[in-house]
Specification:
By secondary structure, the chain is α+β, with helices and mostly antiparallel strands. The protein has one domain: Phosphatase 2c, domain 1. 33% of the residues lie in helices and 27% in strands. It is built from seven helices and twelve strands. It has helices at 10-14, 57-76, 84-107, 111-122, 166-169, 201-205, 213-223, and strands at 2-7, 21-29, 32-39, 45-47, 50-52, 126-131, 136-141, 144-148, 151-155, 179-182, 191-195, 234-240. The strands form three sheets. The protein has a five-stranded antiparallel β-sheet. Strand 4 and strand 5 form a beta hairpin. Helix 2 crosses helix 3. It is globular.
């Protein structure tokens, strides 16, 4: 079972801002699961004494959907079983394709306004997972959370994520922070999750219970009403192992 959900943070609701997080999942082939979350930068862009409001939910939605569609097509074209080396190559291709995608979006804007467009529309994290019967891997650029069977790994950035689109502002082909981490003993994995930085460890631990997309969204709506939870937006994508009858 795979599911995903997003929630608008309390601070964003009070300021009447859009949700800057994105979440999506896909089962493009039997026993192949993909989950992705993105978090758009909320900071204002300041240049030449002017301040520009951030609308980076645009980049979160566009890049997140592009990554999901790209991986869905790429992975279904691979021979089975999909080995770790194949996944590593596919994710390296995703990284290059995502950069090209963002570059093409920005190229449509005049050079005089291109920098502002990138800084206010395309700055977003990208965190995801791929699960197959033989292997499971996390991939990311930016902050958030990785969870495997309740083992939680925060992706720290000191509130300064290295967004993929920074490469458009200051190109450096020798520098990349796009990272991968394979999950040990994937055949014994019960559930796997990625979340944006609006989550907390105690809430992530409660995702061990399988929920349909609708049930997950309802549960998340209730959690967001609790004091001290989800001041920022939240997005999550989850895979749970299907249990056979009697298990």
């Amino acid at each position: 079972m795979i599911s995903h959900a997003t929630i608008v943070g309390r601070a964003h609701r009070l300021m009447q801002h859009n949700c800057q997080d994105f979440a999506a999942t896909a089962n493009p082939a039997p026993h192949l699961a993909i989950g992705i979350v993105c978090d758009g930068c909320g900071s204002k862009f300041k240049e030449n004494g002017r301040s520009h409001t951030s609308h980076n939910e645009t980049g979160a939605n566009l890049l997140g959907q592009f990554a999901l569609d790209f991986l869905s097509q790429k992975l279904t074209e691979l021979p089975t079983p999909i080995c770790p080396e194949m996944l590593e190559t596919a994710l390296a291709d995703l990284h290059l394709a995502a950069l090209t995608f963002l570059h093409h979006l920005a190229a449509h804007f005049p050079k005089t306004s291109r920098r502002e467009f990138i800084a206010t529309r395309l700055l977003t994290t990208l965190v995801g997972f791929v699960h197959t019967p033989e292997t499971a891997v996390f991939f990311w650029q930016g902050d958030g959370y990785l969870v495997a069977d309740g083992r939680i790994q925060p992706l720290q950035s000191n509130n300064q994520p290295d967004y993929l689109a920074y490469q458009l502002l200051q190109p450096n082909p020798d520098q990349t922070n796009f990272q991968l981490a394979f999950v040990p003993q994937p055949d014994q994995l019960g559930w796997i999750t990625v979340g944006t930085d609006g989550w907390s460890a105690p809430l992530l631990e409660q995702l061990n219970e399988p929920r349909s997309a609708l049930t997950l969204q309802r549960w998340l709506n209730v959690q967001s009403q609790q004091r001290g939870q989800f001041d920022d937006d939240g997005a999550v994508a989850i895979w749970h192992k299907e249990m056979m009858n009697g298990e």
